[in-house]
Amino acid sequence: MTLLYEGYEWTPAILDKTWAAIDYIGTVEMGLNYPTPQLEIVTAEQMLDAYSSVGMPVMYNHWSFGKSFITNEKEYLNGNQNLAYEMVINTDPCIAYLMENNTMTMQATVLAHACCGHGSFFKNNYLFKEWTDPSAIVDYLIYAREYVARCEVRYGAGVVERLLDACHALEYYGVDKYRRPSSLKKEVKEKREQEWREYAQATFDDLWRTVPGQKLKKESLKLKHTIQNIKKDPRSTPEENILYFIEKHSPILKPWQKEIVRIVRKIAQYFYPQYQTKLMNEGWASFIHYEIMNKLFNQGLIGEGAMLEFLASHAGLIGQQSYTSPHYSGFNPYALGFAMMNDIKRICTEPTTEDRLWFPDIVDTDYLETLPEIISNYKDESFVLQFLSPKIIRDFKLFTLHDSEGVSNYTVVQIHSDDYVKQIRQTLSKMYNFTYRLPQIEVLKVDWGKTRELTLAHKVLDGKVLDTEEAQKVIKYLDQLWGFNVNLIDVDQDYRPI
Amino acid sequence: MTNIIDRRQGNKNKSAPNRKKFIDRYKEQIKESVDNIATKRSIKDVADKSKIKLNKKTIQEPEFKHNPKSGHKDIVLPGNDRFIVGDKPAKPKDGSGVASDGSPTGEGEDDFYFTLTKDEFIDLYFADMELPNFIKKSLQNDSTKQLRKAGYSKEGIPARLNIKKTFEHAIARKLAAKVQGKKTRYLDDTDIRYDYFVKEPKPLKKAIMFCLMDTSGSMEEHEKNLAKKFFLLLYLFLHKEYKHVELVFVKHTTEAKEVAESEFFYSRETGGTIVSSGLELINKIIAERYGAGDCNIYVAQCSDGDNWAKDDQYCIELLENKILPQVQYFSYLQVETEQRFASKREYGVHDLFYLYQQLKENHLNFNMGVATRDSQIYPVLHDLFKKGG
After folding, report:
1. CA B144 from centre of chain
2. Separation CA A489–CA B30 (nearest Å)
3. Do residues A391 and A354 touch, judged by C-beta distance below 8 A?
4. How far, rounded to the nearest angstrom, does the alpha carbon of residue A427 sit from its chain's CA centroid?
5. In chain B, what residues touch A323 (CB-CB under 8 Å)?
């Protein structure tokens, strides 16, 4: 076999040849399923542009993206960021950004990583299949950008900016976690209203008018509320999608403002699966690029120099700092993800006795069938819970600290020994669970009758309360969106006030 | 063939509107930073790479999050090198936990740094200033267009009928007919030609700035430095506002001379002071080069206020009768030490500052100020060029 390329220069022709080779390995040899790629050659600045505006090729304008561009540019210029690897675009066709100053080996790695790795992940994982439409997202973003721009012209940039600020503050609370029951059809609604009116009329007795005081008032109030409540869907609270609630029920937002709220939450919904699968996604993509580059080398398609360069880059990507390091910033998803994927491959193909004990279902299977199935059906939380092996725990020397309020010391509760495998799994899995990471805040009720006050409930879990200063700032934004008083209370898991 | 799109040529600077929005939003804080930097630096380097510092709290976007000190939680960490179950390591004193709740934005230093480009810096530095008095022809809103002859057209109005061309065509037609042996008319509708004109915008008006400086012996090091700063500031500002500005540098002692920029700031002179020499030269230059009246002329004079006493009246005459009527604006900056200025006031010395007061009262397009320290230069300039002033 002849080398696909030599040295570090790339040309479109070489890119084409190399992609053909990678594609062959991906589809034929490994049986992966991913969408057709669209390769885009960009400058480093364009890459930063895209990365800073949530990674999409198109996005509406907002000052926070300006801030994020500045931050990312600094990080990139300081050499702190592997920009090439970090662009993850869930679109169809799958967009791969190839920076013009990458070497050819880097381009090949990006192709394997983005097109085969991320591409197949987005196409097959259940969360993405459920919640995202990759073929429609770019068009929607184009629409969003133009709509926001038109609103700026028509109503003023300052007004639009304040509205977007408020929506961004509530971004994580603008997603549906479950499919909504389909709303009542208009005819059905009208029929119900009609039925109630008929009932009211049928039971109407003028005699009530002559009855003094209380009984009459109570009856008429009851009827008034019933009719009122028909108009407000009784299933509307409690509601965990705060932006959705505001969009549908805010007393003061104008239609164009509601549309902007809708745009922010639609985009948040689109990215929602990505937050929940970062570990798996990056692990999978890194695993795939590692497999493919190795196969290319073994087949004599890339040279030793290229392979060395790749290995150096790959090693830099999957490094994990220990907790003692001043640069420690949590688990590197590339590191842990890649380790777990590789580990699963090992369990499938060369299981030890320990593996047979822990993973009886996947030992002695074809990893090229098992792994795709895993990435299709799990998310980070369940992935860790199910597949974090004792070996990984030992390799990473995982241990658990218990942090209690008011206690000046941590307590070590779990370490990397066999006794604690299940506990560590559970604890680490929790760390990827959004219910624990983000405060649980829902719309509890609205006093429609009188003050129209909106009450939010924060479900306190494990005694963790909100940072009041920050919460107050967000409430101010909510005041702006709701128009009437907004109240935030702490409740327990059954909505009882604490 | 895979779909390879080269985006490098198109769509650069997509992030520019976002960056602009960011700067606009925090304009006040950034401007404060800019002003601080500018006054400390030498003006020549003033627009060089400037690192602006913003407090992270100011630019933070609020979100719901837990108070990290509350409640209880279990955190998994990698790299256990010493612990067994039951150990009780101490928490870090400053309250920062080992692991955060996984907030999406990263923690870091307390300050947010970023660099302004030269253009952005100058824009912010001069945000409130504007050259005043566009009585004559505004550089921005140049509404006049002029007609330029552009050949001929078959359509037009009788006033534009071009008889010569029309007959040329008529004769040609008759010749052609004669050759073919046909009969034809003397004049036909198809012969008629009109002159054709196109509308063109008049070329942009220029702004001319005269920089007049007293470089005599009475101007000592301190004064010269202040004057230099004044002119440099002016220079930068003009370059920002108007793409077409011409600068003319005139320096004088007892005699005046037009010089190039480098000589204007850096030459060494000694001698007495006759201000009128400078004013005369300016007048001469205006008459020779810019007399056509299609330029906006500005004069900025910088001096320590001293003048040969017998020259005073002549200066006023020159200014009132010749110069002020021709210029858009005349600005005078007196530079000297605080003590000198104060003592002159005390003793009622008739320096230029005193002299020019009468001009200020009678002429709208004259203004003046005094600067005794570096930091007073910018505010004086600001006043001089206040909007509409």
Report:
1. 24
2. 38
3. yes
4. 20
5. 77-80, 98
Count Cβ–Cβ pairs < 8 Å, chain A vs chain B.
242
Q: How far is B148 from B200, CA to CA, in rounded Å? A: 7
Q: How far apart are CA B207 and CA B223, in angstroms?
A: 27
Q: Are A490 and A498 in contact (CB under 8 A)?
A: yes
Say whether A430 and B100 touch across the interface (CB within 8 A): no
| CA-based radius of gyration for chain B | 34
Output DSSP code: residue B66. B
From the first residue on, what is the mean pLDDT of each consecutive set of 10 residues in chain A (498 residues)?
A: 87 92 94 90 85 81 88 79 74 86 91 93 93 89 94 93 94 86 71 80 74 66 62 68 91 93 93 91 95 95 94 92 88 95 95 94 93 95 95 94 90 92 94 88 87 91 91 93 92 87
Which residue in A279, A261, A268, A269 sits closest to A335, CA to CA? A279
- CB-based contact, A227 to chain B, within 8 Å: no
Torsion angles phi and psi, residue A389, rounded to 5: -95, 160
Phi-psi category of residue B192: left, alpha or beta, with phi > 0 → left and psi -120 to 50 → alpha:
beta
Q: What is the pLDDT of residue A439?
A: 92
Q: How far is B60 from chain A (nearest CA, A)?
A: 9
ipTM, 2 dp: 0.83
Q: Which residues of A touch B72 (CB under 8 A)?
A: 402-405, 462-464
Q: Which residue is listed with tokens 């549309």?
A: A259
Task: Break chain A down into helix, strand, coil percent, rounded to 5.
Answer: 60, 10, 30
Is residue B81 classed as helix, strand or coil in its secondary structure? coil
What is the H or E stretch that residue A257 is in? helix A255-276
- B211 Cβ partners below 8 Å, 6+ apart? B231, B234, B247, B248, B249, B250, B264, B300, B302
Residue among A421, A438, A459, A473 with most chain B CBs within 10 A, to mutate: A438
What angle in degrees, to the nearest 10, is found between the helix axes of A157-169 and B16-25? Answer: 90
pLDDT for res B365: 76
In terms of Cα–Cα distance, which of A352, A315, A336 is closest to A395? A336
* β-bridge pairing B50-55 and B111-116: antiparallel
> Which residue is listed with tokens 């810019």?
B290
Q: Residue B355 above 60 pLDDT?
A: yes
CA distance A429 to A174: 24
* Greatest pairwise CA separation for chain B in angstroms: 124
Residue B173 tokens read as 């037609």
Residue A296 forms beta bridges with which residues?
none
CA A149 to chain centre: 26
Order of all β-strands in the sheet with B3-6:
A94-99, A37-42, B3-6
- Cα A112 from chain centroid (whole Å): 23
At A108 the pLDDT is: 93
Q: Each residue of B179-217: pLDDT tens digit?
A: 999 898 899 889 999 999 988 765 555 778 888 888 877
CB–CB contact A413 B113 (8 Å): no
> Which of B52, B77, B93, B117 is the best mutation test for A, with the most CBs of A within 10 A?
B77
How far the first Cα of chain A sits from its last, in Å, is: 71
Cβ-based neighbours of A305, under 8 Å, separated by 6 or more: none
B62–A473 C-beta distance less than 8 A: yes
The model's pTM is 0.71
Q: With beta carbons less than 8 A apart as the criterion, state whether A115 and A106 touch.
A: no
Q: Which residue shows structure tokens 């902007």?
A: A260
C-beta atoms surrounding A168 within 10 Å: 18
**Cβ(A43)–Cβ(A97) under 8 Å?**
no
Name the residue type at position A41: I
Residue B4 sits at the chain A interface (C-beta within 8 Å): yes
Task: Record the tokens describing residue A433, joined without a space.
Answer: 């669970």
Structure tokens at A168: 């961004």
Task: Tally Cβ neighbours within 10 Å of residue A406.
Answer: 7
